[in-house]
C-alpha cells in the first residue's frame, strides 16, 4: 500500500511513522508513506499557501492553486483509489472504515490547516472526508497519523500474528475482552482459571462472553444493530 500525505508541517508526521509497527511495515515493503510539503507548490517565493477568506471572518484558508498543483503532480505517478481530506465535519472514522481502506492500493491524504481548504478542492478532488472525533485540532496531521496507523496495521503481514487484529476492539462491534499475562498470581490477584486450563474452545467462549459484557457495560450503542 502507498499513502501520500500533503501537509504544511511534515515534521509533525515524521515521528509517528518512524517507530514501532508503522516502521516495521515500511521496512518490510508492505507500506510506503510519503510526506509532501505543500509549500513546494507555494504561489510565491515567500512560501505562501494560504490567504484570507472571502466574505471576511477569522482564520486563513489554504488556497486552491497550491493544492491543485500538488494533486496534479502526484497523480502523474499513480492513480489514487481515494483522496481523503481530514476535517472535523467529515464522516466519523471507525474500524469498519479502516478495514475497507486497508484493501486499497494508493491513498492520498490532505491535511487541513488554519481554517481549512478552499471548498473547490473538496468539490473537485476529494472522494472521502474523515473526522476522528467531535473536536477540533490545530491541523489534520495528527488525525492523519491516527488513520494511517489504523489502516496500516491491518495490511496482511504487518503484524507478526495476523490473527491479532481480528480480536481488536470494534471488530464485530464488540470491545475487546480482558487480557492477562504472567504471573498467574500477582499479590493475590489471580488470572481467571479458565485461561490456564488450555482448552481453546472454552477460552474462545469465555472471551466472547467477556467482550459482550464489556460492550454492554461501556458501549451499549455498539449493540443496537443486533437487537
Give the rounded overall mean pLDDT: 93
- C-alpha geometry: elongated
One letter per element, helices H and strands E, the order comes to EHHEEEHEHEHEHEEH
Q: What structural class is derived from the secondary structure elements?
A: alpha/beta
CATH topology of the largest domain: Alpha/beta knot
Number of domains: 2
Helix content: 25-40%
Describe the oligomeric state of these chains in a short phrase.
Answer: single chain
Count of strand segments: 9
Give your account of this protein's structure.
This protein is of the alpha/beta class. It folds into two domains: 2-152, SPOUT methyltransferase, trefoil knot domain (Alpha/beta knot, 3-Layer(aba) Sandwich), CATH 3.40.1280; 169-226, Trp Operon Repressor, Chain A. The chain has seven helices and nine strands, in the order βααβββαβαβαβαββα. The strands form three sheets. Strands 2-1-6-5-7 form a five-stranded parallel beta sheet. β8 and β9 form a beta hairpin.
Amino acid at each position: 500500500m502507498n499513502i501520500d500525505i500533503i501537509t504544511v508541517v511534515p515534521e509533525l508526521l515524521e515521528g509517528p511513522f518512524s517507530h514501532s509497527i508503522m516502521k516495521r511495515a515500511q521496512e518490510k515493503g508492505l507500506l510506503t508513506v510519503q510526506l509532501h510539503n505543500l509549500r513546494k507548490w507555494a504561489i510565491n517565493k515567500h512560501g505562501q499557501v494560504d490567504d484570507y477568506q472571502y466574505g471576511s471572518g477569522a482564520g486563513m484558508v489554504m488556497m486552491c492553486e497550491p493544492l491543485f498543483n500538488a494533486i496534479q503532480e502526484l497523480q502523474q505517478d499513480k492513480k489514487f483509489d481515494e483522496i481523503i481530506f481530514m476535517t472535523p465535519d467529515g464522516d466519523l472514522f471507525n474500524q469498519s472504515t479502516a478495514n475497507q481502506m486497508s484493501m486499497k492500493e494508493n491513498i492520498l491524504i490532505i491535511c487541513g490547516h488554519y481554517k481549512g481548504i478552499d471548498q473547490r478542492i473538496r468539490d473537485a478532488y476529494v472522494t472521502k472526508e474523515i473526522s476522528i472525533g467531535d473536536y477540533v485540532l490545530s491541523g489534520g496531521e495528527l488525525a492523519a497519523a491516527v488513520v494511517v496507523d489504523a489502516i496500516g496495521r491491518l495490511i496482511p503481514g504487518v503484524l507478526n500474528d495476523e490473527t491479532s487484529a481480528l480480536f481488536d476492539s470494534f471488530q464485530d462491534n464488540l470491545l475487546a475482552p480482558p487480557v492477562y499475562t504472567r504471573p498467574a498470581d500477582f499479590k493475590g490477584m489471580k488470572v481467571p482459571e479458565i485461561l490456564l486450563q488450555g482448552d481453546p474452545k472454552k477460552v474462545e467462549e469465555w472471551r466472547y462472553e467477556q467482550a459482550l459484557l464489556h460492550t454492554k457495560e461501556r458501549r451499549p450503542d455498539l449493540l443496537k444493530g443486533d437487537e
